[in-house]
Design brief:
Blueprint: H1 3-15, H2 18-25, H3 29-43, E1 48-50, E2 55-57, H4 59-81, E3 90-95, H5 97-102, H6 105-114, E4 119-124, H7 127-135, E5 141-145, E6 164-178, E7 195-198, H8 204-214, E8 225-228, H9 232-240, E9 246-249, H10 250-253, E10 263-277, H11 283-294
Parallel strand pairs: 3-4, 3-5, 7-8
Antiparallel strand pairs: 1-2, 5-10, 6-9, 6-10
Pfam families: HTH_1, LysR_substrate
Protein name: LysR family transcriptional regulator
Family: Belongs to the LysR transcriptional regulatory family.
Length: 295
């Protein structure tokens, strides 16, 4: 097998279609079909289940995709290591939704101005989803929040995932966000809405919210109903409607001037890191970290 075959296989796996994969790779469809069949013959297994509408991975294909991701990522890292003086190639960056909205636009603009030849791909998700993609070599680095409290220098990166290293970026102040006109809140037991508007499980801020809402009294507050939503706009809409509360970073709330009517209560701080696999280092990554740490 060669890298071109692996790239074709990965494209078909992601697109679930030879036609769409050929279009994304700028290849003719017959070439993609032939190379996939050759790879299956070489491996001696069927990598795809084929029907009239789409191609889905077999269990063997799922296992092979993990290896293909690692091999392609290592090849890209090797290519970039030959040009350590000038950032080049591709950098696949993961980020929490809040950081992508409030913290990344300015450093990304500076980065692109300095190194326009670097192709940056951005993927957003919960901290756990991003860590999973990082460990599977689908990302090169990720901006994520650490769930533990303490000083940045004392936090253990192994809590996030095995074999990860992290560079501290910034500290977020997490706020309990309440509907307009809500009575003062001194403890979780004072909260009237019984629902927490949040992202899916795996979100660090959700973990912080659940821990805070469960503590602070002899009689624990019943676990809140979870309203799992896909965006901060939807979360804030639920809070404004009085149907839920939320715990959000102050920097994100500052982007929504219409949210000034909402009440807020400081809860805790959370430290944010740029994490990578141990040993991963390219000039594109180093330049990106430098811009992020400038703020």
């Amino acid at each position: 097998m060669d890298l071109a075959e692996l790239e074709i296989f990965r494209a078909v796996a992601l697109e679930q279609s030879v036609t769409r994969a050929a279009r994304s790779l700028d290849r003719v469809q017959s070439n993609v079909t032939t190379r996939v069949k050759q790879l299956e013959e070489e491996l001696g297994v069927a990598l795809f289940l084929r029907d009239s509408k789409r191609m889905t991975l077999t269990p063997e294909g799922q296992r092979f995709l993990a290896y293909a991701e690692q091999l392609l990522a290592l090849a890209e890292e090797a290519r970039q290591s030959m040009r350590r003086d000038v950032p080049t190639g591709k950098l696949r960056v993961g980020s929490m939704e809040s950081s992508a909205a409030s913290r990344l636009p300015r450093p990304l603009a500076r980065y692109h101005g300095k190194w326009p030849d670097v192709q940056i791909e951005i993927q957003t998700g919960t901290t756990q989803a991003l860590i999973d993609s990082l460990l599977a070599h689908r990302l090169d680095c990720a901006v994520v929040a650490h769930p533990a409290e303490g000083t940045p220098a004392t936090l253990d990166m192994d809590v996030l995932g095995p074999g990860l290293e992290g560079a501290f970026l910034f500290t977020e102040e997490l706020l309990l966000v309440l509907p307009p006109g809500h009575p003062p809140v001194r403890a979780p037991q004072d909260i009237l809405p019984r629902s927490l508007a949040t992202f899916a499980r795996g979100c660090t801020y959700r973990m912080c919210a659940e821990a805070w809402l469960a503590g602070g009294a002899e009689t624990p507050r019943p676990a809140p109903n979870m309203l799992e939503l896909a965006s901060y706009h939807a979360i804030l809409a639920c809070v404004a409607a009085g149907s839920a509360v939320a715990i959000l970073p102050r920097s994100l709330l500052a982007l929504h001037p219409d949210a000034t009517a909402l009440q807020t209560v400081p809860v805790r701080t959370a430290h944010t890191f740029l994490v990578r696999r141990s040993g991963f280092i390219t000039s594109a990554y180093e330049a990106f970290l430098q811009e992020l740490q400038r703020g």
